[in-house]
Specification:
The protein is of the alpha/beta class. It folds into two domains: about 260 residues, TIM Barrel; about 100 residues, Sulfite Reductase Hemoprotein, domain 1. An eight-stranded parallel barrel has the order 3-4-5-6-7-8-9-10, surrounded by six helices. Strand 13 and strand 14 form a beta hairpin. The radius of gyration is 20 Å and the shape is globular.
Length: about 375
């Protein structure tokens, strides 16, 4: 396959970009402080053939757990810094790559500039022999960029990624990859093409975030990967699926199957009506999830709404407070899950929070109201 001539980025024992085989990765969907569960899932993902396994860290206690996980596995590890970039100092000694989100850098130490914060991250990565990922996400875009581009997510995502590439390059740090993710596969394709046109030298991590449950999530991801990789775009991939604990390795096997098909010229056309009718978006779950009932809830929402399959309604089911509020804004109906209750939204409007036992009935009321309103029109 033709590949963009991206530079090589070393991540532990593997190389991303520079003509290396496309690396496949996944993320542990556990609370990092549950060391036994996290190690078990890292092992499951590694056994499925992952080149890289990511873990989320959001506190000093998470870092302590990460150190223990690191001691108990030989996997190539990446870490998601979440909203606290300062944790890089504690995290970097234990991992091979750190992912930060440009949209989260404005939350902490507001007296410091973005340049200073990125400089700190680059210094920590350099000191501890780590790579970085600039991970731009549709649900948490830098507010400066959203304002600059009048709410256009695609332009804001690309501009944010370009800005951070320029910052890192200006600091003499080039050991980084970039990801531009959205739950809409079309936006993923458009954003990555736009970025690659401007920076064909930067290795790209591909993924459709919150792709959802199989088979829909696999189809969305496959379509995006086929279009981008066929264009020479993409150096590492992650398939984001909502899966039970023991099945988490499926993200890796599905990713490898898609890459194998693309390499063999076995492309699949876009299914008729892929973006028509009911669309359920759900995240793949990770250590940010505060109640494991989220996965069952996503499955229950899918089952409950089968009667609405022919209606153009998007329902987003998100598992945490980090991406949940923002990534439900564009859905007709959104649910983001807390430890004891589920927050229900109609577009960006909050409708209240309900217990896990109440939410399905309340959601059905809103689905029925949408169907009735659109039928009347």
């Amino acid at each position: 396959m033709r590949r963009n001539p991206t530079r090589a980025v070393q991540v532990g024992a593997i190389q991303i970009g520079g003509g290396a085989p496309i690396a496949v990765q996944s993320m542990a969907a556990t609370r990092t402080q549950d060391i036994e569960a996290t190690v078990r899932q890292v092992e499951l993902i590694q056994a499925a053939g992952a080149d890289l396994v990511r873990i989320a860290v959001d506190s000093s206690k998470d870092v302590e757990a990460l150190a223990e996980v690191r001691a108990r596995t030989n996997a190539t590890l990446s870490v998601d810094l979440q909203e606290n970039y300062r944790l890089a100092r504690e995290v970097a000694p234990h991992v091979d790559k750190m992912r930060y989100n440009p949209g989260h850098l404005h939350h902490h130490e507001k007296d410091k500039s973005i340049d200073q914060k990125v400089g700190f991250l680059a210094d920590m990565a350099e000191l501890h022999d780590c790579a970085l990922r600039v991970g731009v996400n549709c649900g948490s875009v830098d507010p400066r960029m959203m304002e600059r581009y009048d709410g256009d997510h695609e332009q804001a995502i690309v501009a944010s990624a370009i800005e951070h590439c320029d910052l890192l390059d200006g600091m003499g740090f080039q050991r980084y990859v970039v990801s531009l993710k959205d739950s809409d596969w079309k936006k993923v394709v458009a954003a990555n093409r736009a970025f690659a046109k401007q920076r064909p030298d930067v290795p790209l991590h591909l993924g459709v975030t919150e792709a959802g449950m199989p088979p829909d999530g696999i189809i969305k991801t496959r379509v995006a990967f086929e279009q981008l990789i066929a264009d020479g775009i993409g150096d590492t991939v992650r398939v984001s699926l909502t899966l039970p604990f023991e099945d988490k390795g499926k993200e890796v096997t599905v990713g490898r199957a898609i890459l194998s098909d693309i390499a063999g010229g076995r492309f699949r056309s876009v299914p008729p009506g892929l973006d028509e009718g009911l669309n359920i978006i759900s995240c793949p779950s990770c250590s940010r999830v505060e109640n494991e009932r989220f996965i069952d809830l996503a499955q229950d929402v899918k089952a409950m709404t089968t009667y609405a399959q022919e209606h153009d309604i998007t329902i987003a089911v998100m598992g945490c407070r980090v991406n949940g509020p923002g990534e439900t804004d564009d859905a007709d109906l959104g649910l983001w899950c807390g430890p004891t209750a589920v927050n229900l939204k109609r577009g960006p409007e909050a409708l209240g929070h309900y217990s896990y036992d109440e939410i399905l009935d309340r959601l059905k009321v809103e689905v029925d109201a949408l169907i009735a309103a659109r039928g009347a029109r």
